[in-house]
Amino acid sequence: MTATSTPLETAPAYYKAWTGDAFEHAMTYLADHVVCETPIGRLEGAAAFRAFLEPFAQQLIGSSLVAAYGDEDAAMLMYGSTTPFVTDLMAAEHMTVRDGRITRIRLVFDQLPGVEARKAAGIE
């Protein structure tokens, strides 16, 4: 990550890090004051976002990038992930990038497959 990185370089590098075995490195792509809007609510700050994402990343079996688009201010990624509970969880992230760091994430995913899988497994 550099201050001259474009959003379309930063966002996929961040995705590759958190979906691989480099979660700590993924966190370096986030601004300390990152704001993330998720289906479960708004998260403010890197620590809050870490608490949200790290448990998911730890259970991730695999993830596949479907598409990546960007301009001079932001990038959007769409990907499918596999966890022990859901085999094809689709998500999209719109990320605003300033000086090579992600300052805002708008994350969209359907919670229902995870809720149903956990309920079927007796986990609530």
From TrEMBL:
Entry-linked Gene3D superfamilies:
3.10.450.50
Q: Which InterPro entries match?
A: NTF2-like_dom_sf (IPR032710), SnoaL-like (IPR037401)
User: Which Pfam families would you find in this protein's record?
Assistant: SnoaL_2 (PF12680)
Q: Which organism is it from?
A: Glycomyces lechevalierae
Q: Which branch of life, at top level?
A: Bacteria
Question: Which is one GO molecular function term here?
Answer: hydrolase activity
Keyword annotations from UniProtKB, A to Z? Hydrolase
SnoaL-like domain: which residues? 13-105
The protein, known as: Limonene-1,2-epoxide hydrolase
